[in-house]
Design goal:
The chain is of the alpha/beta class and 402 residues long. The protein is 48% helix and 11% strand. It has a domain at 264-350. It has 16 helices and 7 strands. The structure holds S-adenosylmethionine.
């Protein structure tokens, strides 16, 4: 394995700062976003064939730019830079043989086995494992057994703690219902702090709490947008402004793009249908005289409804707002115009989707850089295949000698 260098972090930070206009402006209709016009990419993207769009949605735009005709030079250079600075070493595959099967999906077992493979390197001298956001405790129980140490799961959802405690029985690991932020001061220098899919701000909180205690740490984050406010950088390299590395909560979800998931073709089709439905819903609500910001159309409606019929979705949204549903003809017209707008929008979305991995990897590099600033040695690597879970970037930190 190879450690991320300061140069890696600096270059990835510069790249992110350079593309903030793209990250920040999500295409939302038939008109090209401002960055697309300013960068002169509109004609190229609008001219892509349906087949080229499908391939780029499936494999990522960067994978196809070399062969697409008339690709703008700066778009091709951006794709190369993103591919280069998001490439990370891959951890060795680990056997799932010893991972408890009870209530654990095959994918979760692969994640747990891979994670244990990583922390074996860190945990040799840890007196205790603290699993932050332990969920059902699969990782906690496995590490308690594998490392032969005391292990505690900190989880704020009491229902998950109850399941974890029942699975653990009398031995191996204990589980506490607690908000990890309230317990950070209880961490010790001899702890190993772990988090598998520590979502949203929890990943940052866990890294900072471990760093403050001087404990070893291994974190895989996910769902960066699940936090109260925007995400300010933990570390800012020279020559890059802190503001250009502060990412708004509303766009952090970009780091959760699901390329590499199994059944990606079906997943894309479902996502496309649901996006068209949401666009049509907003158009129908606007046509009915309501004022609805982009992204506000689903207020009060379960997100899964967007994958059903448009008529049902409009009925639910109108009921949630206490207004009468528009006529069937108005709903059908909104559906047709949304489908046409989506054909343009999916082309504008391609360069932005190419930046999803950059956002995710950069957050991991930022966490590692912060730890290095406290004297830690760090690794940032891919813990398991994206087909197991695309949220697979691990940050490992060892405190330096005190
Ligand atoms: C995506 S789940 C991962 C669960 C488990 N680590 C796994 O891999 O199966 C994230 C978990 O973190 C918990 N969580 C989020 N924020 C937390 C906090 N501040 N304190 C404690 N638990 C938290 C959630 O309730 C959830 O169970």
């Amino acid at each position: 394995m190879r450690s991320p260098t300061e140069e890696h972090f600096t270059e990835a930070s510069r790249l992110l700062a350079d593309v903030r206009d793209i990250v920040d402006e999500r295409p939302d209709g038939a008109s090209p976003p401002g960055w697309c016009e300013r960068r002169g990419w509109t004609r190229f993207l609008a001219g892509l064939t349906d087949e080229a769009v499908l391939s780029a949605e499936r494999d990522g735009l960067a994978a196809h730019l070399a062969t697409l005709p008339e690709t703008p030079d700066d778009l091709r250079a951006l794709a190369r830079a993103v591919t280069h600075w998001t490439a990370l070493p891959m951890a060795d595959a680990a056997s799932t043989e010893a991972v408890d099967r009870r209530r654990a999906s095959p994918r979760k077992r692969v994640q747990v086995a891979a994670f244990a493979g990583l922390v074996e390197r860190l945990g040799g001298t840890a007196a205790r494992v603290v699993d932050i956001g332990s969920g059902h405790g699969h990782l906690t129980r496995h590490l308690a057994r594998a490392l032969g140490v005391e292990a505690e799961g900190w989880e704020r959802d009491p229902a998950r703690v109850a399941v974890a405690a029942a699975l653990a029985g009398d031995g191996g690991a204990r589980f506490v219902t607690i908000d990890a932020r309230d317990a950070a001061a209880a961490l010790r220098r001899t702890d190993l702090v772990v988090g598998l899919h520590a979502c949203g701000a929890l990943g940052d909180d866990a890294v900072r709490a471990a760093g403050a205690a001087g404990a070893s740490v291994a974190i895989i984050g996910c769902c960066l947008q699940k936090r109260d406010g925007d995400r300010a950088a933990l570390a800012v390299p020279g020559g890059v402004s802190a503001a250009s590395l502060t990412i708004g909560r509303a766009v952090l979800g970009l780091g959760n793009a699901c390329d590499g998931e199994e059944g990606v073709e079906e997943a894309l089709a479902v996502r496309a249908a649901s996006r068209v439905n949401r666009m049509a819903l907003r158009a129908a609500l606007l046509a009915a005289g309501l004022s609805v910001e982009v992204g506000e159309e689903m207020r009060g409606v379960n997100r899964r409804r967007a994958t059903g019929t448009l008529a049902d979705l409009v009925d639910c949204a109108c009921a949630a707002r206490g207004v009468a549903a528009p006529s069937a003809a108005a709903v059908a017209a909104a559906g047709l115009s949304a489908a046409a707008a989506y054909e343009a929008l999916r082309r504008w979305a391609l360069p932005r989707a190419m930046l999803a991995r950059l956002v995710e990897v950069w957050v991991a590099l930022d966490r590692a850089a912060w730890l290095r600033g406290r004297g830690y040695a760090t690794e940032v690597l891919v813990a398991f295949d994206a087909a197991v879970s695309p949220r697979n970037v691990a940050v490992l930190g060892w405190p330096g000698p005190t």
